[in-house]
Write a structure and sequence with these properties.
This protein has helices spanning 14-34, 50-67, 165-176, 178-181; strands at residues 4-7, 69-74, 77-82, 85-90, 100-102, 112-121, 124-131, 136-141, 147-151, 157-160. With 182 residues, it is α+β, with helices and mostly antiparallel strands. It has one domain (1-182). The protein has a 6-stranded mixed β-sheet with strand order 5-9-10-8-7-6, with helices on one face. Strands 1-2-3-4 form a 4-stranded antiparallel β-sheet. Strand 2 and strand 3 form a beta hairpin.
């Protein structure tokens, strides 16, 4: 009891960070081009230094949330943290006999279709989604090629991009087995 076991999450593609850099550059360029330099008074800080730092503050928040992703098992509960979302799912409420590891490009019925609450960027989906099969799912997806699909008893799903999905699934099955509880 009280034991916490962490499972690594597949990191998102490095290209995603370049998207944020491009957004920062575009914002900075627009602000610099639209700023009237003559309106600035003689300050110890040059006027052209303010926009890059102000735009960095706008971009840094989402980047920090992008870094917040974890999967752990605590006290027979699967805990998934993704951006602003945290999902605590009792292992007993998972239908582990139907759990599997899939490629979402081959099983398109389980692809996230509509974001309900979360973040959706190229190669990164976190939060609550409506799937193409019209089911709801909590997603932490950074790699669609090896996704651990965990059905819940209420008809919803958990879709997770664990670095070692087989290890996570085996641990969940061990904890759910009657021998482990008894």
């Amino acid at each position: 009891m009280g034991e916490k076991q962490e499972f690594a999450v597949v990191p998102p593609s490095p290209a995603l960070y370049w998207v944020f850099a491009a957004i920062w550059l575009a914002l900075t360029a627009v602000v610099l081009l639209r700023t009237d330099a003559s309106a600035w008074h003689a300050d110890p800080l040059p006027w052209w230094l303010v926009p890059p730092f102000a735009c960095a503050l706008v971009v840094i928040g989402p980047v920090i949330l992008l870094l917040r992703r974890h999967i752990s098992i605590e006290n027979e509960t699967l805990v998934v943290g993704a951006g602003l979302n945290t999902r605590k799912q009792p292992i007993a409420d998972l239908v582990l006999e139907q759990a599997r590891i899939l490629d979402l490009d081959e099983h398109v019925e389980l692809k996230p279709m509509l974001k309900l609450f979360g973040a959706g960027l190229p190669g990164y989906r976190t939060g609550h989604y409506l799937l193409r099969n019209r089911s709801r799912a909590f997603c932490l997806l950074t790699d669609r090629s090896r996704v651990l699909v965990l059905p819940q008893r209420d008809g919803k799903y958990l879709l997770l991009s664990a670095e070692k999905p087989r290890e996570l699934l085996d641990r969940l099955r061990d904890l759910a087995s009657p021998a482990a509880r008894g």
